[in-house]
Each structure stands twice: as C-alpha cells, then as structure tokens.
C-alpha cells in the first residue's frame, strides 16, 4: 500500500505543477480593458455624444451571463473595467456584454425606474500582440427587464 500511495503522489505532482504553470501563464498572457461612457437616455443605440452622461452608475461586464468584472462611472459618465485573459477571449467571440442595472431615474427623474442599458463590445484585435485587449461599448441600448 505504501508503494501505491507514493506512485499516486509522484503521478499527481506533475499534474499539479502543470496546472499551476498554466494558470500563471494565462495571467501573463494579457488582460481585457473596457473603457467608455454611459449615457443617461433611453432608446436603441443611444448616441453618447448627444446624450447627457450617467455619473455613479454601476457597469458590469457579463460573460456567458455571469459577472466577470465591474466598476462605477465617474462624474463625466466614463468608466474603465479590467478583466483577465479568460474574459478577454470570451469578449472577442461575442460572449460578453456591458450591463448597467442602475435605474436611469438616478440620473434623470423623468426616466424609467426599471430596465437596463446594455451594450456589446467592439474594438481592434491589434491588442493581441501587446497582451492588452482594449475594447469599448458598441452602443448602449435601453432594455426593459
């Protein structure tokens, strides 16, 4: 039995080392950086240039329906979110979107108290070389919950 236990430990050790190395390597490969401005408006493909900004809104990067990263907009409605390489790959294949669940009534009392602003991501693939994928909202649209 003692020999069998030693063999098991010897066989599992390389697997554990390989898994740790893969984990460390994936974090070194790069990160996803999403920046943009959240508008305080309703509609489809809201123009951020002509819409007022949405300060103090909670912005969440959701990949495959799960929260991957998040942040809060500044006074000018701008935000920056960073996520790991796993989420960068999901974003590049279109499995991620930005969601603002903060009610629009917080930035303008005449706007709805329910619903969310949602945007898919866009950006160049040039970041693959530098290890930093920089993406931006493709355009926020208002959706009722």
Description:
There is one protein chain. This protein has 145 residues and is α+β, with helices and mostly antiparallel strands. Helix content is 28%, strand content 33%. The protein has helices spanning 2-29, 85-92, 127-130, and strands at residues 31-37, 58-63, 66-72, 78-84, 96-100, 116-122, 132-137, 141-143. Strands 1, 2, 3, 4, 5, 6, 7 and 8 form an eight-stranded mixed sheet that branches. Strand 2 and strand 3 form a beta hairpin. It is globular. The chain starts with a helix and ends with a strand. Residues 4-27 have low confidence and may be disordered. Keywords: Signal. InterPro entries: Phylloplanin-like. This is Phylloplanin. It comes from Paspalum notatum var. saurae.
What order do the helices and strands come in, and which of them pair?
Layout: H1 2-29, E1 31-37, E2 58-63, E3 66-72, E4 78-84, H2 85-92, E5 96-100, E6 116-122, H3 127-130, E7 132-137, E8 141-143
Parallel strand pairs: 1-7
Antiparallel strand pairs: 1-4, 2-3, 2-5, 5-6, 6-7, 6-8
Summarize the structure in short.
This protein is of the alpha+beta class.
Summary keywords:
145 residues, alpha+beta, eight-stranded mixed sheet
